[in-house]
Amino acid sequence: MDSINLSKTEEPELEHIISEKGNYIQNRKSNSINTKNISNSVIHGVEGAIDINSPISNGEIIIDSSSVKQNGNVLGVIQPHTLLPQPEPPAGVLAVGELNRSKSMPESFDMPAIGNFFREKSNSLSSAITKRLSLMRDQFDDDDEKVMKLESNVTEFNLSGMKVIVNLKEQGNKKLGRVSFFSRSNCRDCTAVRSFLRKENLNYVEINVDVYPQREKELIERTGSANVPQIFLNEKLLGGLVALNSLRNSGMLEKKLTEMLAGKCPEDAPVPPVYGFDDDDDEMSDEMVEIVRVLRQKLPIQDRIMRMKIVKNCFAGGELVEVLIHHLDCGRKKAVEIGKNLVRRHFIHHVFGENEFEDGKHFYRFLEHEPFIPKCYNFRGSTNDNEPKDAAVLGQMLGQIMFALLESYASDDRHHLDYIGISNSEEFRRYTNLVQDLHRVNILTLSADEKLAFFLNLHNAMAIHAVIRVGHTGGMLDRRAFLSEFQYIVGGYSYSLSGLKDGILRSNRRAPFSLMRPFPSGDRRLEMAYLKVNPLIHFGLCNATRSSPAVRFFTPQSVESELRYAAREYFQRDDAMQVDLAKRTVYLNRIIKWYSADFGQEKEILKWITGYLDATKAGLLTHLMGDGGPVNVVYSSFDWSLNA
Fold first, then answer.
1. Computed from CA positions of residues 390, 466, 506, 368, in that sequence, does the dihedral angle turn out positive or negative?
2. How many CB atoms lie within 10 A of CB 546?
3. Any idea what the Cα angle at residue 289 is, between residues 287 and 295, rounded to 5°?
4. 247: burial class by Cβ within 10 Å (0-12, 13-18, 19+)?
5. pLDDT value at position 72?
6. pLDDT for 490-527, tens place per residue?
7. DSSP code for 266
8. Angle between helices 289-298 and 332-344 (to 10 degrees)
9. Per-residue confidence at 175, pLDDT binned at 50, 70, 90?
């Protein structure tokens, strides 16, 4: 742009002062502005500024760089002359002061502003969703008849940024009453009734008389017998499984349910079980309890040194004899007999388990002072001093409670358990109370089948308890603590999961990847161990993993047949056994490899397995083994994840 010569500009008599609004105001003063040096100035139209190269002589008011200064203070900005051409920005470029900023992003990017921004957007989105849902609900209320005519009861509509699906529940006759039925554990008819009620989505209350023994009296009073199942609609008896099937086949069941459950459940209907209340047991204290209480108070229990070892919380046999003589006013021989009786009842034990009881300097300790006690999860501060229950009866009670747990909190195939539901259940609470009766139970009184069922059930119950209390770890090596540190007191001695499986059921054989046997020589627990291993036990034991057999519990009357059934069921799974004729390969679970000492050599294993396969797999394996060619055995990976 060409420069403009201002040399002929007249000197003003008034001084121009810039107001706050940027306008010129004239004041009459004697001073004047010397403009003789402004001739060399250049007015830049684009920048809107006046460039003046030389200062004004008077020095009072200086025009410099588009501003007016007086004594160094800026008074205002000189605007370009209105007659000058206005600058225009290049095409596609916004003019100065017209920068296009995002309307959704604040100019300040400090954290509070960002938080407020997202909070406002979230609130607006929530308000939009709520408003839209409210409108849709009103629309559904107005058009109820139209909605019922739709083939699907699912209405779909879109909101900004998301998709919402509303499922409309079928409007039927609301049943105010209650369905109740009495049952027993491991009852086939009860299982059928339970499955039907679940399939029909009927809310029901189950009263298992094996879990709640005192409710059996109520069952007899209401029905005249102890037979189960017995179904009640409110206070009225419907009958058992036969009556239920009869109504289903006749098509009258729905009408019957609607009629009998239309009213509110009366007070004389069967009451649902209440959590946290135990039945009144007529348990008797052990006849030796009074003597034991005296001994606990008067014996000098302290740490001693024996065989260069520090033995904690013990007393000498002679000290016990002296206390008994003075307290009972009896002879020494009788006091020794009482000491032996205390050992047989597992109130006291020799510190090294070497003898029953002898008078003298042999050291003994009470059961609650044994070093394994902190690891025992069925111990709650003190031993159970009640008269020990019969081992067979106790084993049956434990099995019934665990059957009830599976029926309520396991999948139909029993491969998955609801551990959270189990931990919060009344059945599990009663189980944890019942296992305290194991402290001094006499297992030697069990028959062979009773003992087998007892230890199988105890192992599977302990595995569930261990998952709930200490959690689940994966991998064979990682689970060694899980298998050995979680223990119960049973018959005066500690048993871990490994002790039950490898020590008792596997005849004290080493566990996989272990260098030592579960029980050392001379251990009293070896009296319980089987002399010969039954390979079928591996299909009845569940270690709470997905690749292990399904969790189950056994009855003493048919434990052998139930184990054979468990083996057949296990080998039907693809992760347990497969045959590939093309590759001449048999795929087996790693359980077979880890416990090959129990099954035998590979050829023997394949022959043994054939007897537990279904017709298809048995035919393929027989054909593969009978043609004289080589057979490859591959062991599939083991899934250590929790069976939940």
1. negative
2. 14
3. 130
4. middle
5. 58
6. 999 999 999 999 999 999 999 988 889 999 998 999 99
7. P
8. 110
9. low
What would the pLDDT profile of 87-135 be if each residue is shown by its tens digit? 666 665 555 444 444 444 444 445 556 666 666 766 676 777 777 766 6
Q: Say how many residues make up the chain.
A: 644
How many of the other CB atoms lie within 10 Å of CB of 304? 17
Model confidence pLDDT, tens digit, residues 307-355: 888 999 999 999 999 999 999 999 999 999 999 999 999 999 999 887 7
Q: Where are the alpha helices (DSSP H) in 424-518?
A: 426-434, 448-470, 480-485, 497-498
What pLDDT is stored for residue 37 in this prediction?
40
pLDDT of residue 8: 40
Work out the number of other CB atoms within 10 angstroms of the CB of residue 62. Answer: 17
Task: Give the C-alpha separation, 212 to 235, whole Å.
Answer: 19
d(CA 519, CA 498): 10
User: What is the token pair recorded at 437?
Assistant: 């009766």
| Pair of tokens at residue 496 | 């871990």
Q: For strands 154-159 and 162-167, give the pairing.
A: antiparallel
For residue 208, give Cα distances in angstroms to 228, 279, 291, 365, 602. Answer: 10, 13, 39, 41, 46
| pLDDT surpasses 70 at 546 | yes
Quote the pLDDT of residue 591: 94
Cα–Cα distance measured from residue 630 to residue 30, given in angstroms and rounded to the nearest whole number: 125
| Distance of alpha carbon 617 from alpha carbon 21, whole angstroms | 99
In the chain, DSSP finds a helix count (H) and a strand count (E) of: 20, 22
* Beta-carbon count within 10 A of 299 CB: 18
Query: Which pLDDT score, from 0 to 100, does residue 176 have?
Result: 77
What is the reported pLDDT for 274? Answer: 86
Give per-residue burial for 515-545: e unless 16+ CB within 10 Å, then b: eebbbeeebebbebbbeebebbbbbbbbbbb
Q: Are 512 and 548 in contact (CB under 8 A)?
A: no
Query: Which residue from 81, 453, 346, 155 is spatially nearest to 461, judged by alpha carbons?
Result: 453
Q: What is the 3-state secondary structure (H, E, C) of 175-234?
A: CCCCEEEEECCCCHHHHHHHHHHHHCCCCEEEEECCCCCCHHHHHHHHHCCCCCCEEEEC
**Total-model pTM:** 0.72
Cis before 270 (ω within 30): no
